[in-house]
Amino acid sequence: MKTIAGFGHLEEELYLTTFLWEEAKHVDFFQRTIDSRDVSRKNLAVHQVPSYMKFFGDTFSSRMNILYDAPSPENLLRALATYNLSIERVVAETGYYAWY
Predict the structure, then answer these.
(1) Is there a single domain that holds both residue 63 and residue 19?
(2) Could you tell me where the beta strands, DSSP code E, fall in 9-99?
(3) What Å distances lie between residue 22 and 15, 27, 28, 50, 71, CA to CA?
(4) Which domain range does residue 10 map to?
């Protein structure tokens, strides 16, 4: 949102606020689900997979955080592609599969 605001794209910035709100609802839902089943965060399987932690701890963070240091259209595209392909596609689809 900060990068888009810096580019002066008000409509896109307003859209991203609704996107963020929707994502917050997902976090709330999953947190309530985990809490209702008394699952400890340290027992979640994803924290035990080194490749998962490397990707989301290093690669994902660096792709997203580059927007703070170098907010260019190219880096914005990389960050959006990383987020949407990683979170919206891989993690969400895997989570839905596991859920069902």
Answers:
(1) no
(2) none
(3) 11, 9, 10, 29, 24
(4) 1-39
